[in-house]
Design a protein that fits this description.
The structure is a homodimer of 424-residue chains. Chain A is α/β, with parallel strands linked by helices and 424 residues long. The radius of gyration of chain A is 20 Å and the shape is globular. In chain A, helix 3 crosses helix 14 and helix 10 crosses helix 11. Chain A has a domain of 234 residues: Rossmann fold. In chain A, the strands form four sheets. In chain A, strands 3-4-14-9-10-13 form a six-stranded mixed β-sheet, sandwiched between helices. A four-stranded parallel β-sheet of chain A has the order 7-6-5-8, with helices on both faces. In chain A, strands 1-2 form a two-stranded antiparallel ribbon. At the A-B interface, helix 3, helix 7, helix 14 and helix 16 of A face helix 3, helix 5, helix 7, helix 14 and helix 16 of B.
Chain lengths: 424, 424
């Protein structure tokens, strides 16, 4: 009966898709934080596993997914592509709405796709501990789970606002053997600068990244893992869009509009980039909408320029849309979207008009989540609810214009661990 | 593109399975609480919708599922049948373990199967409000969701121990428009008796049922809904086993052992009864194991006799395994299993040796949940974790005896809303 020990599925991609292979013009390169010169990839080896750097800098169109990672994916992938028929009825729209539901992953969000890959790469190089930051805890819990799976310890600096609002994901991290600390905290110079001024400082992803990177730089047996922003992370998330493409094609369909929320950008890019490929290569006129919170509007309110990924200026300078590395976003519930910057690749595509950015306020987002919950029976994570809000606007526009378009969006996670936010 | 508005699946059953059609000897009938005489079904009309009573008393083998309920099921059913290959590896067992995963339902547990059916039946008879009780909140949140879907108000008496331990599900009920009250509370005579003595009384399902039934008896526009125990509820849950039977048969398999946890009994019966049918009719030697908590051992520690379903003695007398209607279970985390009685049908089958009952302590159950989480990536609800503990014991026994048996169990819900319990 060995055939049951492997669950294969032809929908599961065997390779990641690298959008850089299809860009005529490449984004500006990262710069060394000290010299301001283009970064030698070797300089990253103090921070990242070598295998990760190789993916980060690759221009190959398709990069193979290692067998061990594929086996781990096969426990929850392919994720369902769901037709939102009840939402359609509730909105009275002629649009056909599909969502790719990443909430079925063990940790309830898309973050596990890159967490497994990063933990695997670290395990191959004998890394003892992966250090990271987390906002709402989706990324931290995913990395803790992946670390346990591949035998790598995980230490997480969790943004204080989320640490206190969302005990559930903190407990999940601990259940997977992860070490969790409130950020900013007293154990790093980067954290101490804020912690001394205010031990209740709500924190930000930028500060937590600085704490994690500083920790790694002081400890050679540790490496750093980032849950979004970087090219390699967006690459790992391409499994979402690659699956969705096959799933839609199985019904003879292509999307007219692709929607995802953006914090660091990997959620949107994961679904969108495989479809952007067709826009870049075949000039298909698909619309791409990246949805961010009004409270942290890096694409719609930030500048496109070089900036650090962390608040302390330890990381390389990335050419991206940014609100400034000192920006402290208000403690909105979509903790995963509280980041001052935006993935350089998403920034690049937005600046060229290939991706349209919109920003929504928290009230509108929660109302959209309720509409979705009442019709489709899934309570979205507050991050994903931003995408839902944009979907509803697009579906209403389709009704006004009587257009039978196909809308595809990334329901990147469920909200079972965010109920306290919904209560407020 | 209308084909997308209905997602059909040949695995989805069109009928419920009624085990009473296959019992040579019927369980003893319910008795009137006042007279002690066998109950006239018409006497139940003050409490239940007529359509529900018809199902409760039917001896038909297969009862059709109404189209509107089927459409609601189709939003999350068929639920996956998963091969637990990683758990198998972790245990080093030759046994093949499959779980039917009901946690994919909108509310994260199997309870929605009967909630939708009961809310639909109430809506057909113009019921304004369904009143119920809930332990851990799985049932209450399922009924609130189902009520919103079919336009029936829902009022829930929630056992205080769970109300305080599990705010998440209380919030979910409110999001679906349900009214939630702590039980025992001051708004009913049944509740007041306990509330006066101790406003922090942890409560029990028996007390909460009494509060709900009393409320319904005082208000003709209300009807009562129960989440387990009754024959009709077990009937509705048969969709779980009917699907699993087809899913296993698709792989050329039958289970040697079927395992489910028992509180009121519907979780176990939902998976088990369609397979028990074959044992009853074709004399197949399948093993059936019902797992209960040591702290509330109605099957392994209770008597088989007539008893009330509630603490106040308002409900009909049911012939069942019971710890006595006055029994107040300790506030264990598996709130859904804190019930003094057991479904008459499960009691009947257990007393005839067709179902074997076992009881596990909380520590063993949580350890099993952690093993399952680390290997299969799903954190079980504390209730379902009881089944996991028994599965692990069976799988280890199979290893000792080197038997390649097929074990099937009901993973009736996920534990995302029970993380506080896991922390303790």
């Amino acid at each position: 009966m060995e055939r049951f020990s492997e669950r294969k599925n032809e929908l599961l991609p065997t390779h990641f898709y690298n959008i850089k292979a299809d860009l005529a013009e490449q984004p500006k390169p990262p710069l060394h934080p000290g010299t301001g010169e283009p970064l030698d990839p070797a300089a990253l080896e103090a921070i990242f596993p070598k295998g990760f750097i190789a993916q980060e800098t690759s221009r190959e169109r398709f990069l193979p997914i290692p067998a061990a990672v594929l086996a781990a994916y096969a426990q929850y992938r392919p994720t369902p592509l769901v037709y939102a028929g009840e939402l359609r009825k509730a909105l009275g729209t002629p649009a056909h709405i599909f969502y790719k539901y990443e909430g079925v992953s063990p940790m309830g969000s898309h973050k596990l796709n890159t967490a497994l890959m990063q933990a695997y790469l670290a395990s191959q190089e004998g890394v003892r501990e992966l250090v990271t930051e987390t906002g709402a805890g989706q990324w931290g819990s995913a990395l803790a789970y992946a670390g346990e799976r591949f035998g790598v310890g995980v230490r997480v600096f969790m943004v204080r606002a989320s640490f206190r609002q969302k005990p559930g994901r903190r407990i999940l991290m601990t259940l997977s053997g992860g070490r969790v600390e409130e950020s900013p905290g007293p154990n790093t110079e980067a954290g101490l600068a804020y912690y001394r001024r205010d031990p209740d400082h709500p924190g930000s992803l930028g500060i937590a990244i600085a704490e994690a990177v500083e920790t790694v730089m002081k400890n050679p047996a540790s490496k750093y893992a980032l849950g979004s922003v970087l090219d390699a992370v967006l690459l790992h998330q391409s499994v979402i869009g690659l699956e969705a493409e096959k799933q839609l094609a199985g019904q003879g369909l292509e999307p007219d509009t692709v929607i995802g929320c953006v914090g660091g950008g990997s959620n949107f890019a994961g679904l969108g980039f495989p479809f952007l490929r067709r826009r870049l290569r075949e000039k298909k006129m698909t619309n791409f909408i990246a949805v961010e919170p009004e409270a942290c509007p890096s694409l719609t309110g930030g500048d496109l320029r070089y900036d650090h990924g962390d608040s302390a200026g330890l990381t390389p300078l990335l050419y991206m849309h940014t609100l400034g590395k000192e920006f402290i976003p208000p403690p909105i519930h979509a903790g995963g979207l509280r980041y001052h910057g935006m993935a350089p690749l998403v920034s690049h595509l937005a600046s060229r008009g290939l991706v349209r950015a919109v920003a929504y306020g928290q009230d509108k987002v929660f109302a959209a989540a309720r509409t979705f919950f009442a019709s489709e029976g899934i309570l979205p994570a507050p991050e994903s609810a931003h995408a839902v809000a944009a979907v509803i606007d697009e579906a209403r526009r389709a009704r006004e214009e009587n257009r039978e378009q196909v809308i595809l969006f990334n329901l990147s996670g469920h909200g079972f661990l965010d109920l306290a936010a919904y209560e407020k």
